[in-house]
C-alpha cells in the first residue's frame, strides 16, 4: 500500500552499487496517466542540491511523467558538473520511457559534496525500468533509505479514488522540511494548481512541523502526482484531508525512526495570539538541547521549557505561562505548579503542553530526545 496503490502508477527499486553495502539504492516511479498533473514542495535551504534545482524547473510546467530517486549520494554542492549529472539522469529516464526529460523529476539523498558514480546510476535506471510493476512500491520505498531502519509507506482511500505515499528520513529533520524525500500519488483527477495548493497546506501542518535536530537539509523534496486513472474529481475538502492524512502518517514514521531517538515528543502550544507565535514557540522548545537531554533522562525539567519560550518574540506574559508534561501541570503562572514527581516519562510518547495565555491559536511541533546514539551515528556518518 504505497505509491503504486493508486491506479496508473508503476514503480521499482534496485541495487545499483551506489551504497557501500549491497542494498537497493535506485528507485523509479512512473505515472502512466492519463493525467500527468504534479506539484512539489522543496527545502528552503539556500544551498540546494542539483536535483532540487532541476525538479523545481520541471514543476514549473505542472507535469511529471516519472521520478527517479537515488540514495547513496546527495549530489549537493557538486557545482555545474553535478547539475549536468542530474540532467543526464533525467535524459536517461526519458530515453527508456520514450518521453521528454522536461517531465522527469530527479531526487537524491546521501552524503553532501561528492559526485555520483554515473555509470552505476544510469545502469540502475535501466534495471529499474525493466522491473517496473504495480507491485514495485515497497521496493521503491526501500531503495530511498539512508540511515532509515525501516521503509516508510502510507495509504488512504477516498470516495472513488486512492492516495499512496512513501518517504525517507531519519536525520536532519527540521523545517523546511526534514532531510527527506517523499512521493505521494493519487489516481484522482486533480489539476496541477489544486495539487499545489493542497500539498502546501498539508506539508505546512505535517512535515513542516517536524523538527528533531534543528538541521535543515539541502535535498528536501515532496512530490504529489495525479494520474487521473480513477476518473474521479474529488471533493476538494475530502481530497485535502486525505493528502494531509498521508503526509501526517509519513511524518509520524519519520519521527519514530529518527536517529538514536528513544522518545517521540509532541510540543502543543496553545493560547497563542497568532498561529505563527505557536509555531515559533514550539520550534524553540523543540530545538532546546537542554530540554531534549532532560526528556531522555526522564527529568520533567519545566524550567528548560520556559527558558526556550523566552527566547522567542511571541506574545506572552512570563507570569501567565503554564506548562504540562504528560498531563501534569507542573508550571502554573510562570512558577512551580503540581508536584513534578507525578510526571511519568517512561513511555516513548511524551506530550508537552505550553499555554501562553495570550489568545485562541495553537500549533503542534514534533521532536525527539537527544541521545548518545544520535551523536555516535552522526559523528561517523561520512566514514
TrEMBL record:
Positions with a binding annotation for substrate: 146, 168, 179, 259, 378, 383
Keyword entries, A-Z: Acyltransferase, Amino-acid biosynthesis, Arginine biosynthesis, Autocatalytic cleavage, Cytoplasm, Multifunctional enzyme, Transferase
Site (Cleavage): residue numbering on this chain: 178-179
Pathway membership: Amino-acid biosynthesis; L-arginine biosynthesis; L-ornithine and N-acetyl-L-glutamate from L-glutamate and N(2)-acetyl-L-ornithine (cyclic): step 1/1; Amino-acid biosynthesis; L-arginine biosynthesis; N(2)-acetyl-L-ornithine from L-glutamate: step 1/4
Transmembrane segment boundaries: none
InterPro entries: Arg_biosynth_ArgJ, ArgJ-like_dom_sf, ArgJ_beta_C
Gene3D superfamilies to which the protein is assigned, alphabetical: ArgJ beta chain, C-terminal domain (3.10.20.340), L-amino peptidase D-ALA esterase/amidase (3.60.70.12)
Broad class of enzyme this protein falls into: transferase
GO molecular function, one term: L-glutamate N-acetyltransferase activity, acting on acetyl-L-ornithine as donor
Catalytic reactions of this protein: N(2)-acetyl-L-ornithine + L-glutamate = N-acetyl-L-glutamate + L-ornithine; L-glutamate + acetyl-CoA = N-acetyl-L-glutamate + CoA + H(+)
EC numbers: 2.3.1.35, 2.3.1.1
Catalytic residue positions: 179
Subcellular location: Cytoplasm
Site (Involved in the stabilization of negative charge on the oxyanion by the formation of the oxyanion hole) location in chain: 109-110
Protein function: Catalyzes two activities which are involved in the cyclic version of arginine biosynthesis: the synthesis of N-acetylglutamate from glutamate and acetyl-CoA as the acetyl donor, and of ornithine by transacetylation between N(2)-acetylornithine and glutamate.
PANTHER family: ARGININE BIOSYNTHESIS BIFUNCTIONAL PROTEIN ARGJ (PTHR23100), ARGININE BIOSYNTHESIS BIFUNCTIONAL PROTEIN ARGJ, MITOCHONDRIAL (PTHR23100:SF0)
Subunit structure: Heterotetramer of two alpha and two beta chains.
Family assignment from sequence similarity: Belongs to the ArgJ family.
Protein name per its UniProtKB record: Arginine biosynthesis bifunctional protein ArgJ
Lineage: Bacteria, Bacillati, Actinomycetota, Actinomycetes, Streptosporangiales
Gene this protein is translated from: argJ
